[in-house]
């Protein structure tokens, strides 16, 4: 799987007070720092061989709009525009849809209620899809994914209470290599993945679930900084990536943002 394009979106100021969050952070989100961290994130995408990056204008009326991953599932030349699980996030999809419609080579499909999916629940291994059934993604949404990508096996994974998305506990960390957290929810998801998958993956354990959300792009591993997750620093070295980039995402993580959610890669 080689990615050359990425879609991102500028951060609205309204995220500081109105971004959805599972719990209040200890310190408020520092907006200026969040902007700097996003800039560095975009630079890391460039360093991973992404040559074409679109950064959409922001919209203050949708505080979570920086998390573009949730609005689209893009595989090959098909872009499935989702119906995000949180009603406040549904208006986010219009400019995302417009963007993919403007790409000459894209087939664009839209999902309608009652089906709903957050892209954060969709893990594509390159061979098959695992879809988290969570507070944001339902069985009907999974069915739409199955219909939209008929040639790819699709498996459901139940996401435990208190975990936002499937990719809050596991992501790809290499070719056929899945990074997975160690919490009870992460372990249960891992067992379900093992028992449903058609293909075999190396599973690498990451001591903190939040740090298990990494980006693996064209052989480059982008992970969370050891400043944020010192207990996970040893994991990255053993992964055989061509290049390893460390990013601090402390501010967006205060509203449950992780590395994968800040871009759509295709
Ligand atoms: C939300 O609760 O929807 C946002 N505050 C965070 C979304 C993070 N998205 C992702 O991990 N894919």
Strand arrangement across the biggest beta sheet: 2-1-15
Average of pLDDT: 97
The largest pleated sheet is described as: 3 strands, mixed
Helix content: 10-25%
Number of helices: 6
Give the low-confidence spans: none
Cα distance spanning the termini: 9 Å
Number of strands: 15
Order of helices and strands: EHHEEEHEEEHEEEHEEEHEE
Bound molecules: citrulline
Shape descriptor: globular
Q: State the secondary-structure class.
A: alpha/beta
Radius of gyration: 17 Å
- What is the strand content? 15-25%
Summarize the structure in words.
- With 266 residues, the chain is α/β, with parallel strands linked by helices.
- 22% of the residues lie in helices and 24% in strands.
- It has 6 helices and 15 strands.
- Strands 2-1-15 form a 3-stranded mixed sheet, with helices on one face.
- The site of citrulline has 18 residues, from loops.
């Amino acid at each position: 799987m080689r990615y050359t394009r990425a879609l991102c979106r500028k951060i609205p100021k309204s995220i500081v007070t109105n971004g959805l969050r599972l719990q209040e952070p200890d310190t408020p989100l520092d907006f200026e720092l969040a902007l700097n961290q996003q800039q560095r994130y975009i630079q890391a995408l460039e360093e991973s061989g992404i040559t074409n990056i679109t950064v959409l204008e922001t919209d203050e009326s949708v505080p979570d709009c920086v998390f573009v991953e949730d609005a689209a599932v893009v595989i090959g030349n098909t872009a499935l525009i989702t119906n995000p699980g949180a009603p406040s996030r549904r208006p986010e999809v219009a400019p995302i849809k417009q963007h993919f419609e403007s790409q000459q080579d894209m087939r664009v499909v839209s999902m309608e209620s009652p089906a709903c999916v957050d892209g954060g629940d969709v893990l594509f291994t390159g061979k098959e899809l695992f879809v988290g059934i969570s507070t944001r993604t339902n069985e009907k949404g999974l069915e739409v994914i199955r219909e939209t990508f008929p040639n790819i096996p699709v498996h459901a994974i139940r996401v435990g209470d208190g975990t936002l998305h499937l990719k809050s506990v596991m992501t790809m960390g290499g070719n056929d290599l899945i990074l997975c957290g160690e919490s009870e929810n992460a372990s249960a998801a891992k067992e379900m993945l093992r028992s449903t998958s058609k293909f075999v993956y190396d599973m690498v354990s990451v001591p903190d679930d939040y740090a298990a959300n990494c980006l693996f792009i064209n052989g480059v591993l982008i992970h969370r900084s050891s400043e944020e997750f010192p207990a996970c620093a040893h994991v990255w070295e053993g992964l055989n990536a061509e290049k390893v980039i460390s990013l601090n995402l402390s501010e967006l993580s205060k509203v449950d943002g992780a590395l994968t959610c800040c871009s759509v890669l295709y």
